[in-house]
Specification:
397 residues; alpha+beta; MutS, DNA mismatch repair protein, domain I; Dna Ligase, domain 1; five-stranded antiparallel beta sheet; 12 strands; 38% helix
């Protein structure tokens, strides 16, 4: 999708069309999550605060994001994709991969499918998207990235050498700025050079990933589509606060809230974890994480909370806290079992009852007494949000 959140807002409000728009969160400390193409012309970027954006574009319009609009649109677009192939991976809230290998002949070919999807999305939602076509997802994504906005491009196998020869490394999916700098140090600055690089050199400098890098430089990728939701490696939540936290009681309350969010999602999707991680970001944006391994697997809110607190106890906080995050990892599927001890059974039934109430009436309609302040909804939805599975988070209130 092209500038997805901003495009949805411009379509929802005709007064925003053709104007520089930035979608932000509802808090006082928000940053830009998406900006329209009109705003991009002034150098406005994702992650900027509103003051930086104003300096670059004094007439920019800030719009508080509406997560319900974006998740609804993502879910409805999935129905369009499934009209052309059952092999669809919703990679993120604004991006999807479709494998049309076995169906393209039914619809007039890959380009015809790309055009049809673009047309249906435009007609139904009034927004633009870019379609990239290639022999694998690496090249299909590249074709999309270099054709934005509102483009369509098919990079065929016979075109790969010409496309990749002078293409900067950072244009390839999976090669970020740090990795680009490391490769640049060895005189590798383009994808063509990466594809011709010595395999022994890449192995020696980057280990097993060296083989993968050389393949990427040649336009090769054997990653399959994840049509079915994959089991997650971790389940976590984080929260940036409207004001920095310095009091221990405030920090503990927020950790409890985050632990409940993690535990509830783990219970809903029948996962237990054995590692708890606490993430802390100071007011100067310095960020670090610590983790602890539990003696047994759990998805109990208070066990996650107590272990997160034990991590906090081991840390000497040197500044006010801007962000906290809690995650549960080393996950296994939960198996139904009988509990010999009545107290454990009661705790499980209590958590089940709380989850049922909050699922039916909305998040935090019933909360732990230790969390006394009014719970705030998540202001910004993660790009990793999915229409179903463990990555799905209900944004309705």
């Amino acid at each position: 999708m092209d500038a997805f959140f901003a495009s949805v807002e411009q379509q929802s409000n005709p007064k925003l069309r053709g104007k520089p728009v930035a979608v932000i969160g509802s808090g006082n400390r928000t940053v830009i999550t998406t900006r329209s193409y009109e705003a991009r012309k002034f150098g406005v970027k994702t992650g900027m605060n509103i003051y930086e954006a104003k300096k670059l574009c004094p007439h920019i319009i800030f719009v508080v994001g509406n997560n319900e609009k974006y998740t609804y649109t993502c879910t409805e677009m999935q129905k369009i994709y499934l009209e052309y192939t059952p092999d669809v991976e919703i990679y993120s809230i604004d991006e999807a991969f479709l494998d049309v290998t076995t169906t393209y002949h039914l619809f007039g070919g890959p380009e015809a499918i790309g055009c049809a999807i673009k047309k249906k999305i435009k007609e139904k939602f009034g927004i633009n998207c870019t379609a990239g076509i290639g022999p694998n997802i690496l090249i299909a994504k590249l074709a999309s990235d270099i054709s934005k906005p509102d483009g369509l491009r098919w990079i065929k196998p016979e075109d790969l050498n010409n496309v990749l020869e002078d293409l900067p490394l950072k244009e390839l999916w999976g090669i970020g700025s740090r990795l680009s700098e490391k490769l640049n140090a060895f005189g590798i600055k383009t994808c063509g050079q990466l594809g011709r690089a010595s395999l022994s050199l890449l192995r020696n400098k980057f280990g097993i990933i060296g083989e993968h890098l050389k393949a990427m430089g040649m336009g090769l990728c054997n990653r399959p589509l994840y049509v079915q939701e994959q089991d997650p490696k971790s389940i976590g939540h984080s929260m940036t606060f409207s004001k920095d936290l310095s009091q221990r009681k405030e920090i503990e309350a927020e950790i409890l809230k985050l632990s409940e969010m993690v535990g509830r999602r783990a219970r809903h999707y029948k996962f237990k974890g054995r590692k708890v991680t606490l993430i802390v970001r100071y007011s100067d944006f310095k960020t670090f994480s610590r983790q602890t391994t539990l003696p047994d697997y759990t998805n109990h809110t208070h066990k996650i909370y107590k272990n997160a607190l034990s991590i906090l106890d081991s840390i000497f906080l040197t500044d006010k806290v801007r962000l906290l995050g809690v995650s549960l990892s080393s996950l296994i599927r939960e198996k139904e079992q009988m509990f010999l001890f009545e107290e454990i059974s009661k705790q499980k039934e209590l958590l089940k009852a709380m989850d049922m109430i909050n699922d039916r009436y909305g998040d935090f309609k019933i909360i732990w007494g230790s969390y006394l302040k009014q719970c705030e909804p998540a202001r910004v939805i993660s790009p990793a949000w999915k229409p179903s599975g463990v990555r799905h988070i209900n944004v309705k209130r």
